[in-house]
Specification:
The structure is a homodimer.
Chain A (H helix, E strand, L loop, with lengths): L14 H10 L4 H8 L4 E2 H7 L5 H13 L3 E6 L5 E6 L1 H4 L2 H14 L9
Antiparallel strand pairs in A: 1-3, 2-3
Chain A binds a DNA duplex through helix 3 and helix 4.
Chain lengths: 117, 117
DNA sequence: TCCAATGGTACCCTTTTCGACACTATGAGC
DNA sequence: GCTCATAGTGTCGAAAAGGGTACCATTGGA
């Protein structure tokens, strides 16, 4: 059944590439990680940066990123509810990866031009 | 319907990350690109480097990579059939990305340790 | 004629991914 | 009581992704 997230990748050279990809390849994950690189964001702040994401999808992807140890989710005891998301220490080590992806996309993909974050 | 490959990514900053990911996130693509970084490989050579890939899946992913302009497929007029695969010029620009993914996987994913290619 | 090597293709199935839509919970303020 | 803001959750369906299995085509050599 496909490339299950967290498959063991003890097969052959190069599998580390697939292992890393399995953590970041869900829709919206890459761009979420990119935005979190610049600091803490609340749920709705992330959501407003992604024009077409549904609440449901965003919640799910954030939960997976958290489960994989790439981001941290801080719940505040307040009303209205407040939840902050940050890159974890581990997530921060992904910055070269995310930046490499962005640099390549900016240079090579039509319509992927980026404006100021 | 999911993140269709080649979606226009003219929405917001950071979309370039997703755009790039959409090209390389099919199962086996990352590791195929990694192996092609070291030079031309024939279909069966690639296949033997990936212990659990089916012929069908490998063919499909190679065809997609070719369609996206990341690899070149050279057919030789001979029997038995011979088809060589290489990174395209465009594909070569992805090397920093693939290497970043591999470096991160090697350092951070259990069981993703790599041996000599 | 049969077998081998190579690189496929056809048909079908299962699972996963993603999104639409509706609904929920909390306290604060009016 | 009602509305608001925030961050969700539940249910379902469509499409995509991935894979299994069988079969195919070609020439060369035994």
């Amino acid at each position: 059944m496909g490339r299950t997230r967290h498959d063991r990748f003890d097969c052959s050279p190069g599998c580390a590439v697939e292992a890393t990809l399995s953590l970041i390849d869900g829709k919206w994950k890459g761009v979420v990680l990119y935005h979190l690189m610049s600091g803490t964001l609340r749920f709705n702040e992330i959501r407003r940066k992604l024009p077409n994401v549904t609440q449901r999808m965003l919640t799910n992807q954030l939960r997976e990123l958290e489960a994989d140890g790439l981001i941290t989710r801080t719940v505040f005891a307040q009303v209205p509810p407040r939840v902050d998301y940050d890159l974890s220490e581990r997530g921060r080590t992904l910055e070269p990866v995310i930046l490499a992806l962005k640099v390549w996309g900016d240079a090579n993909m039509p319509s992927a031009g980026s404006a100021a974050a």
